Automatic annotation (TrEMBL):
Protein name as it appears in the record: Dihydrofolate reductase
GO MF terms, alphabetically ordered: 5-amino-6-(5-phosphoribosylamino)uracil reductase activity
Superkingdom, natural source: Bacteria
Originating species: Stackebrandtia endophytica
GO biological process, one term: riboflavin biosynthetic process
SUPFAM superfamilies per UniProt: Dihydrofolate reductase-like (SSF53597)
Domain Bacterial bifunctional deaminase-reductase C-terminal: 4-181
Alphabetical list of Pfam families matching this protein: RibD_C
Amino acid sequence: MRELVYYFGMSIDGFIAGPDDEVEFYPGSEEYMAWMFSDYSDMIPTHLRPSVGLEGVPNKLFDTILMGRRTYEPGLREGAPSPYAHLRQYVFSRTLEQQHPDVEMVDTDPVAKVRELKQADSEFDICLAGGGELAGVLLSEIDRLVIKQYPVVAGTGRTAFGSTFMPTEFDLTEVKTFGDGGNAVMFYSRK
């Protein structure tokens, strides 16, 4: 069965975005960015892939991406209604209308949809790219976490799992650090 992997970045104090969904304040060192382009190239938006040498590079880890409305809308504003055209794209929203034929809008139960996607025959996993409210709803279905911690304190903002209290244990399986800027990546598996 395929796994659901929540792949996200956060500040030292645990925020995935600022209060108005800002993310541009997250610093990424050269070594860290090289790792991301190499090991998690599937997560580079399609329109950016040619500029970083990833045009035509086959997927390594994922064939499906899940996004909440707040994660999807910045791409819309930038003219990218299909931000991950190299993946099957699902946006969970009760308010957005269909924006692009390659992006499926889902306004039904996210847990039921994820369970359906996990049953699909594929060698690739499913990536949950955000946001926090959606991750909170899907916490019972998340199998692994890939947390990119940025060396910055945000002070306030959006949390990684919304506002529902649901203690869920994960085992830390690996930590990668990048000496040229303070970035770290922590890998967890469901206990």
